[in-house]
Amino acid sequence: MKTMTAFRRAIDKAPIVPVLTVQDVAYAAPLADALIKGGLTSVEVTLRTPAALEVIRIMGDMDNDLLVGAGTIISEGDVDAALKAGSDFLVTPGTSPLLLEALSNHDGVILPGISSASEAMARFDEGYGVMKFFPAEASGGASFLKSLAGPLPHMDFMPTGGITPKNAADYLALPNVIAIGGSWIATPADMANGDWDAITDKARDAVRIGRDKG
């Protein structure tokens, strides 16, 4: 896995992380090329399809600077499989005691999922300074994260879930948001249609939104 310094350097350049559900291994290379062409620097490949691990492996082996993370990590088996596939970082939707134990055995960039102040405080005490806020819109959205910035200014978040081009800027304007995750940039339909140009265009638009962060 990559270091937090490398992860932060990547998202500083483009604080939008596409959340990808990839159905076919054949999509991996053209998808990565399209996203890089659009200016993005990192991706989260969800472990929701049989193709996911091979997609991570292919993207990670390509000659580019794209950071390739694994999302929907929910078990020790997912942790092991994602690391063997070469994932640069791990993202979880939440944390069970068994999953926390498995994660504690690994260094590198791990973004555990939280949806409350108490969960955020617990994960910080366990050593996680950056967390995934999920599902973002359903859990209070940008207004919730804004309310956490006062009492918990030492914590950073990557909100994911329900974020669109219309509300992305609201999240990125917050001091405790270092990046956002979004599934709109490369949809399953885009991939199935081979519409790589459309993905590149949406990536470019996302980068423009990210430039206004801070």
Keywords:
214 residues; TIM Barrel; 10 helices; globular
Q: How would you describe the overall organization of this protein?
A:
By secondary structure, the chain is an alpha/beta fold. Helix content is 42%, strand content 16%. The strands form two sheets. A six-stranded parallel sheet has the order 5-4-3-2-1-9, sandwiched between helices. Strands 6-7-8 form a three-stranded parallel sheet, covered by helices on one side. Strand 7 (130-133), helix 7 (141-149) and strand 8 (156-159) form a beta-alpha-beta unit. It is globular, with a radius of gyration of 16 Å. The two termini are 28 Å apart. The mean pLDDT is 96.
Count of individual beta strands: 9
Average pLDDT reading: 96
Strand order of the largest sheet: 5-4-3-2-1-9
Tally the helices: what do you get?
10
- Gross geometry: globular
Report the β-strand fraction as a percent range: 15-25%
CATH architectural designation: Alpha-Beta Barrel
Q: According to CATH, what is the topology?
A: TIM Barrel
| Distance from first to last alpha carbon | 28 Å
At the first level of CATH, the class is Alpha Beta
Number of domains: 1
Work out the radius of gyration. Answer: 16 Å
Helicity level: 40-55%
Classification by helices and strands = alpha/beta
The biggest beta sheet reads: 6 strands, parallel
The name of the CATH superfamily reads Aldolase class I
pLDDT < 50 runs, ≥5 residues: none
Secondary-structure element order, N to C: HEHEHEHEHEEHEHEHEHH
